[in-house]
Design goal:
Layout lengths: L5 H15 L6 H14 L5 H32 L5 H49 L16 H16 L8 H9 L12 H9 L6 H33 L8 H31 L17 H7 L2 H16 L2 H14 L1 H24 L3 H19 L1 H11 L5 H18 L1 H5 L2 H13 L3 H7 L8 H18 L14 H18 L17
């Protein structure tokens, strides 16, 4: 049940009405029921996966809390215990806490690994087995549960936070709502328990201001998804067809089209998530800032899929950097290569591990892994060249000019667009072939003759996309996605603006069979 489907609109309407009327005294319980019903639409068997994650993570969290409470009571009951005795007892409790953490992490990551990566592992091992004439492993196809990467990471952030000192949630059902809250199940954001617990479980009265703000955000998401992404994806699919012969200059066009499509698709879905949650009185964190105004790749990733980036930073990069193997590498590299370069070796190793996992999280395919590693390599190269940049700016003094900033934005946009080509073509070999075609077979003639006219879109489609993209660019200058909720305008003007977006979506939106639009790109993750 996708956000832009008729089924979802009917489902949300029923949920919204029931939330503020019949079930207004048991709102969070009703939301839990609605979230499980929503998830059941993806397949009843998928409920087993999410319920196992909910129960196992909640149980581990409660065991950690009991250990901490027991520790406090024990130490308070024996005030005469020596400092050494206290430290020894605390070390024993900490070891038990770590045991529960590791068990919970391994159990839930194993579920994710089996359902998402088992086919990838088998397909990667079989070619090696064929080389040594060994019997190949039979492939296993498991239907990927909806949003498993998102809800698993959300649950794992909770258990790690509990290990670090967060008080665990005593109610299994409240915790179940945190993991399964339906607006963010499809494609995030990846919320933290501390960020959601107050607003998610509180009782909310209907607020017309909040409703209109949420509705405006939802319509802004529909505008980007149905008018831009679902229209332009037709050209992207044509350009990405390996048998279409669209190499050379068309690769550049494809990179440009896909950048717009992915942004409109993903941010459109997040807008719908935040808008629907807001109409229910639940505040979900922003997941995008202004990524296409970034001046570097690192800056881009601070503004794109923010909750995923902070998750990997807080729960992967920092722990890896502070781990014993990395500290040993740090000491060895400092001793072997000196303080400056030696220190960077351990940092860059952690960076590459981070981006390897990021690529793998996006999909069980080699092109995703290569995409992640390329991001890491570019960031490392940029870091290494930073002293050279500093000398350049000191010499020419153009770093603070608008012209140079525009150049940085232009450079970052195209660099990210070309890195994402791995995602577009879905094959490392084909992507490299397309890269080479830009250099050795640019083929201006075909483009000058036909342009983009044979990609499944007509001039009216391109004109509409261009107008919609201009609207998106203008919205970007507001510096804040929440400005599209029109909270700072007069009520009459807000009504007009929302109605305009509704009519624009109805008249110009692209709909699939039965008014179900294309699946969101990030659903696959």
């Amino acid at each position: 049940m996708y956000f832009t489907s008729a089924n979802f609109l009917l489902f949300f309407l029923c949920t919204f009405v029931g939330y503020y009327t019949v079930f207004r005294r048991v709102q969070w319980q009703f939301l839990l029921m609605a979230s499980l019903v929503f998830y059941a639409f993806s397949g009843w068997s998928n409920l087993i996966y999410i319920c196992v994650t909910i129960c196992s993570t909640w149980f581990a969290g409660r065991q950690m809390t009991r250990l901490r409470i027991g520790q406090e009571q024990y130490l308070a009951g024996i005030p005469e215990l020596s400092k050494k005795g206290r430290n020894t007892y605390k070390a024993v409790i900490k070891a038990k806490l770590k045991k529960w953490l590791v068990l919970c992490l391994l159990f839930n990551l194993a579920i994710l690994a089996v359902v998402k990566y088992i086919s990838f592992v088998i397909s990667s091992i079989n070619p090696l087995l064929s080389v040594i004439n060994a019997q190949q492993i039979t492939s296993i196809n498991i239907l990927l549960p909806l949003g498993i990467s998102f809800y698993t990471f959300q649950a794992l952030s909770y258990i790690i936070d509990v290990y670090r000192g967060l008080e665990s949630e005593s109610s299994l059902f409240k915790f179940g709502l945190f993991v399964s809250f339906f607006p963010q199940l499809i494609q995030g954001p990846i919320s933290r328990f501390d960020d959601l617990k107050e607003t998610l479980y509180s009782q909310h009265k209907f607020d017309s201001e909040e409703f209109q703000a949420g509705l405006a955000r939802v319509m802004w998401g529909f505008f980007k998804k149905l008018i831009v992404a679902d229209r332009l994806i037709t050209a992207v699919m044509a350009l990405s067809d390996p048998n279409g012969g669209y190499g050379g200059v068309y690769v550049i066009l494809n990179a440009f089209f896909y950048a717009i499509t992915l942004y409109a698709d993903f941010t459109g879905g997040i807008d719908i998530t935040l808008g629907t949650a807001r109409m229910l009185g639940v505040a979900v964190k922003e997941n995008f800032s202004r990524p296409f105004y970034s001046v570097s790749i690192a800056d881009y990733w601070r503004q794109w899929h923010i909750t995923m980036g902070t998750w990997f930073k807080d729960y992967l990069f920092y722990p890896i950097s502070a781990s014993r193997p990395m500290l040993r590498l740090f000491k060895w590299s400092q001793k072997s290569f000196g303080g400056g370069f030696g220190k960077r070796i351990s940092v860059y190793t952690s960076t590459m591990i981070l981006w390897f996992v990021t690529g793998l999280w996006h999909g069980a395919e080699w092109h995703f892994i290569v995409w992640g590693l390329v991001n890491g390599i570019v960031i490392i190269i940029s870091k290494e060249l930073s002293p050279l940049y500093a000398r350049f700016h000191k010499r020419f003094r153009i770093g603070d000019t608008n012209g140079y900033k525009a150049f940085q934005i232009f450079r970052t946009f195209w660099l990210m667009s070309f890195i994402r080509i791995f995602d577009v073509y879905g094959s490392v070999r084909l992507t490299i072939k397309m890269y080479l075609s830009v250099i050795f077979n640019f083929d201006w003639t075909r483009f000058i003759t036909n342009g983009p006219s044979d990609l499944g879109l007509d001039i009216a489609d391109y004109a509409l996309i261009a107008i919609a993209v201009i609207v998106m660019v203008i919205a970007g200058f507001t510096h804040n996605n929440r400005h599209m909720e029109f909270t700072n305008v007069k009520p009459i003007l807000r009504t007009v603006l929302i109605a305009s977006m509704v009519f624009a979506v109805i008249i110009f939106g692209i709909y699939g069979f039965g008014y179900d639009s294309r699946q969101f790109i990030y659903n696959q993750f």
